[in-house]
Amino acid sequence: MRILRMLVRQTRRKRAGFSLMEMLVVLVILGLLAGLVGPRVIDYLNSAKTKTAAVQIELLRTEMDRFLIDNGRYPTESEGLAALVSPPPSLASWSGPYIEGDAVPLDPWGNPYRYVMPAEGGKAFEILSLGSDGAPGGQGDAADIRR
Fold first, then answer.
1. How many whole angstroms separate alpha carbon 145 and alpha carbon 48?
2. Residue 13 CB: number of other CB atoms within 10 A?
3. Residue 145, class by beta-carbon neighbours within 10 Å (0-12 exposed, 13-18 middle, 19+ buried)?
4. What is the pLDDT of residue 59?
5. What pLDDT shows up at residue 14?
6. pLDDT value at position 63?
7. Nearest to 129 by CA among 54, 70, 48
8. What is the pLDDT along the chain (147 residues), one digit of tens a residue?
9. N or C: which end of the chain has fewer CB within 10 A?
10. Among 75, 64, 74, 51, which residue's Cα sits nearest to residue 145?
11. Which residues face 129 on adjacent strands?
C-alpha cells in the first residue's frame, strides 16, 4: 500500500504543470486571435464614435430649436452652445437650461463641438465635430461630422 501511494505521488508531481512547448503553443494561438480580431474591434469602436457624434449633434440641434422658440433667435456665435446651459446676459426670456449638466458635452474624442453662425449654404447655424484628429477636414474617423 505504501509503495502504491509513493507511485501516485510521483505521477502527480510529474503532471503538476504545463510544459514550455504547451505554453508556447497557447501563446501563439492567442497572438493569432488577437491579430485577427483586434483590428475589427477597433473599426467598430471608431464607427461607434462617429455615430455617437452624429446623434449628439442632432440632439444639440433640437435644443437649439427650443432655444429659438423661447427667445425668438438662435444664440449668436459669441454666445455659442454655452447658451444652452446658462443664460446669456442679454436674454430675459431664457427658459433653460436646455441640456442637462453644467456644460455642453464634448464630442466622443474629448473635443468641444463647433458652433458656426451663419453656416454655409444658407443655413442659420451649423454644429460640427472635427473628428478624431481635432482638425478641419480629414478622412475616415478623422473626417468632420456635420449635421
1. 13
2. 9
3. buried
4. 93
5. 58
6. 93
7. 54
8. 677 676 666 655 556 678 888 889 999 989 888 888 777 777 767 778 888 999 999 999 999 999 999 999 999 898 999 999 999 888 888 887 989 888 999 999 999 999 998 877 778 899 999 887 877 877 777 777 887
9. N
10. 51
11. 145
Nearest to 51 by CA among 126, 143, 123: 143
Q: What's the chain's length in residues? A: 147
List the grid coordinates of 1.
500500500
Judge whether 137 and 131 are in contact, CB under 8 Å. no
Burial 93-129 (b: 16+ CB within 10 A, else e): ebebebbeeeebeebbbebbbbbebeeeeeeebbbbb
**Torsion angle defined by CA atoms of residues 22, 23, 29 and 31, in that order, rounded to the nearest 10 degrees:** -160
Task: Dig out the grid coordinates for 115 from the structure.
Answer: 458652433
